[in-house]
Amino acid sequence: MIQKILIANRGEIACRVIKTARKMGIRTVAVYSDADRNALHVEMADEAVHIGPAPSSQSYIVIDKILEAIKQTGADAVHPGYGFLSENAAFAEALEKAGVAFIGLPVGAIKAMGDKITSKKLAAEAGVSTVPGHMGLIADAEEAARISASIGYPVMIKASAGGGGKGMRIAWSDDEAREGFQSSKKEAKNSFGDDRIFIEKFVTQPRHIEIQVLGDKHGTVLYLGERECSIQRRNQKVIEEAPSPFLDEATRRAMGEQAVALSKAVGYHSAGTVEFIVDGNRNFYFLEMNTRLQVEHPVTELITGVDLVEQMIRVAGGEKLAFGQDDVKLNGWAIESRLYAEDPYRNFLPSIGRLSCYRPPVEGTKADGTIVRNDTGVFEGGEISMYYDPMVAKLCTWAPEKEGGPARLTAIDAMSAALDDFEVEGIGHNLPFLSAVMQHDRFRSGNITTAFIAEEFPDGFHGVAPDDGSAQKLAAVATVVHQAVQARATQISGTIGNHRRVIGRDWVVTFAGHEHAVTLDASSDGANVRFSDGTTLAVASDWTPGRSHASFDIDGMIMGVKIDLLGTGIRLRWRGINIIAHVRSPRVAELALMMPKKLPPDTSKMLLCPMPGVITAVAVTQGETVEAGQTLATVEAMKMENILRAERRGVVKRVAVAAGASLAVDELIMEFE
Length: 673
What we know:
This protein is α+β, with helices and mostly antiparallel strands. The N and C termini lie far apart (70 Å).
């Protein structure tokens, strides 16, 4: 039995492995860079070893440093998590040479399937349906354009050693193929130390569905159902679910059996994933095999009851799987939402900084039988660094099968409530966007493809506009909050002479183009908010001034609302809606209409840095005339390259920075005449 595991990773996956190891009575060792000295995984582990500077190229992916940490601590096994060295055959070979168990796949399988070019060739040889493409090495951008044109646009340009959306671009023309090749090559080199690129046909309107496989060292390989991962942005998964709302049992079985056959062909053991592209007729094509644990593994664990990390540890220790294919049952429905440190209101650009507030929803089984799980690697007061992936947490919900009600919608509603209760402040984050997707009719229907976000949010995300029903409920919330603030002020001011401050009953609530005249009748049990159209909402709440979140029972509907008092305004956030409400007396509301509007500063002639990051290239010079769409500069943040382009024709007046400069959000890059 394994005695001590070193986790060659960081963040939430390191914490995830530590939890299972602790449950099994196995000691753990964390490794950390300068940036992670105070990280949660360091605190959770039994031991911790410092391995170098913040950049992963100088710490987490330096094999010799990991081997030295193993030597220092006497660890007899290593779990690589995902990313970093998880699919590095040289690392697995080094561990084997050192007599240390690798909690992952055998070296041969990593070499065969970890490389996307080789894996596609092997899949084709094994009779697995594959997407048309060019699997050979590509010399330069011109050759990439020629190959792309011969395959037929659109094409997908991908890093051979890639994953997590890194080193991946879609090209619709020769120019985009050239540019995509260069960007993918750079990202691949920076993220994986391997800049090989291949090109394949991009299947339009596809669904991304993957099969979880699990095998032992005694010849048994099983499939544990599928995961639907079609909700993606820039090829990065955002929301996953298990099972898929699209597959029937026959297709599930065919995909699973094909995944198992391919796994056995390469001597596979441990946990991994075979990914497929599935078209509208349920035809499926092999995409790639991930020879590691997947980010989205929790949804499979929730519907099967199998702890995949535990099984990986047991397999690495030589144990046989204690169950067979017929024992694998899919129960209920699970949803995973990836919480990213990226600002959805700024085109999802990365965000860094201190988590001034981090309060996840309460985990565990709820009264209705649903389950909430949150896998995370951060804590309130911790820092989100620019050096690593922007994922902060993975929020999961599960719903049991219930007669008369679809488990999927119950799981989605549970996710909506959990997102409402998730408080994050100090950084930009995508919680509002995740909430918006959960409420989207197309998502709830299951009619999704990998183009969902591009099609439903073509101009980016600008928040959710409240409909009339939501607006009334939020107006009632604002009124009750205002009443509580006024009551607190009355208690503080008390009675002066024979005069006591009196709180009015009639108010006008305004926000986001909505105006509601209301009358509030408060009592010890709550309040009734009566609207001018005759509607009355009964409101009960546990909110008191100073709290940033509260539950409101509005005519039997529970709303988890985030609340901030901003001067005379009340900021309310719920289900992707983000408003500032003003509650005024009728006379003050009348006067407020006469106040001039404050205009934002004019930055139309400036290129500002949209995210904290490093300028890797400046493509223009002072005095140069640029055209709309022309590349101006490139910013690298959180291992992703972001190309900044001209919005319109103009002349560069001044370039304020050079390549290599580190900039904060909204720092000036260049000005235009």
